[in-house]
Specification:
alpha/beta, Rossmann fold, GMP Synthetase, Chain A, domain 3, 9-stranded mixed beta sheet, about 20% strand, globular
Length: about 550
């Protein structure tokens, strides 16, 4: 049975039980397995009536919703290759991806956004509103078309070091391999559940389905006995989380770091006694972990565990068995913080090209600061230069219409991740950095710095610009004055505002710091060929970088 057949079978067995829901006006609007299958059937009838055939591509531009999930299943069931797009991306960037993938149609929930995208295209694609897919009654077979392992099912765009997005093709074989792996890890977390009579997993999700990890989570949730609740308003994430009361959910580091700060601020506001008890308990927890405990540490930790931690844990999620975190490195301090509260944080490492996952912490085998062992069927090793190489049934077959880049990425039969790492004797991996210059924000967004640096430098003649942002919540810029009269705070701010105006939120540069001296080969900050030594610059100006991130964002 293929992954898609398993999903359809599970939805059919769920019948009148809820399988997915959306938070709307302070309540969860649920959809049953039977209702979701009906929606999928209607959408398939619409796609066939429009003349779409197996092998065609169809772009899907909409925020997460039950209908998004139904449309995605309908496309796959008809053998149509889905091209999910990020609804918060700039229209020009979306147009570049639409133009590259040449879809037979563009399904969008936002008519205005779709029109903006079409305006940037040389020829119209033809937009279909998402709601139109479900207006008919549905015709044709109920079961999905048979898929061979080599059949492409999705093209997910990811940014490269050049800043130009590349379409990552994932095929049925990739997904057929990945879903049993994700389900096996979740079974370890929840306890193996055989049969529909057992309680369903409660899952909450806020990440866009156009990201590989979110897309895999959606398929995993629909393939197992679970109820997936979708966030519909990031500004109300805390309230939505309380309403969903999940057993687990996927996070990016920036969210967990915000939750940690909110907890710490709340405790400080409760007064000196509460703050003292909490901080003593935290010091004791860390000391006991490192074997450097002092007299009284066990008592302090016991007091915190009895008096404070249960209430804090309940405020995060009363039913939480674990937090799952990926997309970017999570600080050890934040991971230990939640572990102290009794909430395990399972780290995941993977890329779109690896069907989202290479490693995943086991619930009983967490090593803070590392991302766990390779999932079954995945081989990982280090190249001579420290790059992580991966192979297995989950490795993508190639980039859409980019044979040269595909060959380079898969050279020697291994996928070259572009990440540096190390593995210890226990088989747990740690990611130490990027082989190239791609900036990975705490939100999980990838940003190529060079195009933005070039655009800024054109507006600030004579200045050198280096973007900073790895493992940070936003981008910032180091700008050299180089004795140029035009490089002054007002001019830099104006240049930033001009550049930011056409960018999506995660590419906007929020602050800057002026560096008096130029980056040069003599100072060790530029190669003899004139290329910036980014790591050396970041180390030299660490204090200035910290100062930027203490500023109020521009």
């Amino acid at each position: 049975m293929t992954y898609l057949e398993s999903i359809f079978d599970r939805l059919g067995r769920a019948g009148a039980r809820p399988v997915i829901g959306e938070v709307r006006d302070g309540r969860i609007v649920s959809t049953t397995g039977a209702e979701l299958l009906t929606g999928v059937h209607k959408a398939r009838g619409f796609l066939r009536a429009r003349g779409l055939r197996a092998g065609d591509r169809c772009a899907l531009l909409a925020p997460n919703s039950t209908r998004w999930a139904a449309a995605n299943l309908a496309l796959m069931a008809e053998g149509i290759i889905a091209v999910p797009l990020y609804a918060r991306q700039a229209p020009a960037e979306l147009a570049a991806m639409v133009g590259d993938s040449s879809p037979a149609c563009l399904i969008s929930s936002d008519e205005v956004l779709a029109a903006e995208v079409e305006r940037h295209l040389p020829a119209k694609v033809g937009t279909v509103l998402l709601e139109a897919l479900f207006a008919g009654e549905g015709e044709g077979p109920l079961q999905p078309r048979h898929q061979a392992d080599s059949d492409p099912v999705v093209i997910i765009y990811t940014s490269g070091t050049s800043g130009e997005p590349k379409g990552v093709i994932l095929n049925a074989g990739n997904v057929n391999h990945m879903l049993p792996s994700t389900n096996a890890r979740l079974d370890q977390l929840m306890g193996t559940r055989a049969g529909m009579e057992n309680p369903a997993d409660r899952i909450f999700h806020y990440g866009p389905f156009c990201f590989a990890a979110s897309w895999i989570l959606l398929l995993t949730a629909l393939s197992r006995n679970s109820v997936l609740t979708l966030s519909t308003d990031l500004a109300k994430l805390s309230d939505e989380l309380k309403l969903a009361a999940p057993d687990y959910f996927i996070n990016v580091p920036i969210f967990l770091e915000r939750v940690r700060r909110r907890i710490e601020e709340t405790i400080d506001q409760r007064g000196r006694l509460a703050s003292a008890v909490f901080r003593r308990a935290r010091r004791a927890f860390l000391a006991l972990r490192t074997g450097k405990s002092r007299i009284g540490d066990s008592l302090c930790l016991a007091l915190g565990s009895r008096v404070m931690f249960p209430a804090i844990r309940k405020s995060v999620g009363p039913n939480l068995r674990a937090l799952i975190c990926g997309s970017a490195p999570l600080s050890v301090e934040t991971q230990l913080f939640f572990m102290m509260l009794g909430i395990p944080v399972l780290q995941v490492y993977g890329l779109t090209e690896t069907t989202a996952i290479c490693t995943l912490d086991g619930p009983q085998d967490i090593e803070p600061g590392r991302v766990g062992k390779a999932v079954p069927g995945t081989e990982m090793k280090l190249a001579e230069d420290g790059e992580i190489l991966v192979r297995g049934p989950h490795i993508f077959p190639g980039y859409w219409q980019r044979p040269a880049e595909t060959a380079k990425a898969l050279e020697g039969g291994w996928f070259h991740t572009g990440d540096q790492g190390e593995v210890n004797a226990r088989g747990n991996w740690r990611i130490t950095g990027r082989m190239k210059d791609l900036i990975i924000l705490n939100s999980g967004h990838n940003v190529a710095p060079e195009p933005l640096e070039h655009e800024l430098s054109e507006r600030l003649p004579g200045a050198q610009i280096v973007l900073i942002g790895n493992r940070r919540s936003s981008l910032a810029a180091l700008v050299t004055a180089n004795s140029s009269p035009g490089v002054e705070p007002g001019a830099i701010q104006a240049a930033l505002e001009a550049v930011n105006a056409g960018l999506p939120h995660y590419k906007q540069i929020r602050s800057f710091e002026i560096i008096a001296e130029p980056f040069s080969a003599e100072s060790g900050l530029v190669t003899t060929m004139g290329k910036l030594k980014r790591e050396a610059i970041a180390a030299r100006y660490a204090a200035e970088i910290e100062r930027m991130y203490q500023k109020k964002p521009a």
